[in-house]
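Sample intake sheet
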Amino acid sequence: MPKGKYWDKELETMPREHLEELQLRSLRDEIKFAYENAPYYRRTFDAAGVRPDDIKTLRDIERLPFIDKKTQRDTQGVGSFLGELAAAPEEDVVFVSTSSGSTGVPTMSPFTRADFDEWQNVESRLFWQAGMRPSDRYIHALNFSLYVGGPDVIGAQNLGALCIWGGTLPSERLIFILKTYQPTFIWTSPSYAWYLGETCRKSGVDPKTDLSIRKILVAGEMGGSIDATRNAIAELWGAEVYDFYGLSDIFGACAAHCEFHDGLHIAEDHILVETVDLRTGEVIAPGERGELVYTTLRKRARPIIRFRTGDIGYVTKEKCPCGRTLARIHVDGRKDDMFIVSAVNVYPSDIEYVIRGLSGVTGEYQIRITDRDFTNRYEVTIEKSGDSAESDAALAERASNALKARVGVKPAKVIVLPDGSIERSTHKAKRVIDERKSDYSI
C-alpha cells in the first residue's frame, strides 16, 4: 500500500520521453492484437493499407481510420454476441457495461478479468490522487445499473477505504445514511451534488456542520470542471470538489483532478490521447482546442483504436505543479451540444459558468435552442432564489448581459421561474433542449 503522495510514483512522475516509449510499446502490441483478433480492425486496416508492423512511432497511428459511436452500433452483435470490434471470446469476458444511449442506441462495453482488474487499479490511483486514504469512509452514490461508473467503488475498496455501496438512493434515505455513517467522501454527479446539498438545507441539515463530507467527487457532466459550479458546490458543502472523467468505451474514470484542479490527469499508461480538428479530422497540437480522440493501450476484450469521443477540449503535457507528468485533458463540452449563434460557437459549459456565478439564483438552468430563417437562437431558463427581492425583469436583464459578456452573443430571451420549477436530476441533468428543425451537425 502506498504511503506517500502518489499511488505509483514511478509511473505518475515518469519523464515524458520514458512515458512515450512505454506508450509506443503498448500501442504496437495493442494494434497487433486488435488486427489479429478483431474482424473489424483487420478489414479496415487492410483497406487503409496499414499493417501492425508499420506502426513505428506514436505519430504513425494517424495512418489508421477513426471509429465512433456509429461504428460501435453498426458492429455490435455482428458475427458474434460481442460484435466485430471485440478481440476476445465471450468466455473470457467477465463484465459488460452499456452507454447511457443519450446519443443513440446504447453500446455495450466488455471487459476481460485482466481489463477489469487494471481498470480498478486506475480507479484506486485516481482516488488516491484526490486524497482518499484507508482511514476514509466512502459512499458511492452512482448508478449501479449497467453504468460503467458503478463498479468503481471497488477501486476505493481496494485502496482500503470503508465503502458504502449507496447507488441511486432516494434523497431522504441518502441524507439519513450521510448523517448516520458520516462518510468523508462521496461520488455523484455535479447536478445531484448541488441538489442533495440544497435538499439537506431545506430539511434542516447543514452539510457543512452536520455531516463529515470533506471531498466530493463528481462525474457525468461538465460541472466539475467549471470553476463557478465547482466552487458553488464546495461552498454549499464546505468540501473540496474533484472532477472525474470516464467513458463506457474505455472504463469508468479515465482521468481526474489533482489538488490543483487545472485539467484532469489522464491514465496515459492505458490511453493514448490525440486532439483533432472538428471538421477535417487532422491532428492538431497540444494546447489547441478540438475533438479528443482516444486509443486504448492495454484493453483486450474490445480494443478502441482512434475513437472520436465527441468531447471538445484540449490537452496539456507540461509537468503539473503536483509533480505528475501525465497529460491533463481540459474538456469544454460535447460536440453534440455546441451550437452556433451569429457565427459564435456557444458551449453550454460557458452558459453554466455564468448562471452558477450569478447572485439571486438557485443555479439550476435549462437551455432551449431554436431556429428561424436558418438562424439559431437560444433561450435560457433560470430560477430565482426564494429570498431574492429583485424583480424578474431586472434579473433577466442582468443574466442576459452576463451571458453576452461571457458567451459573446445575447440569448433571445431569459426566462425567470420560482425556486423549484426546474426538475432536479439524480444522475445526468437534461440541460439542453434542441428544438431546431434543420440538421446542424458539424
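Comment: The mean pLDDT is 92. DSSP finds eleven helices and 19 strands in the chain.
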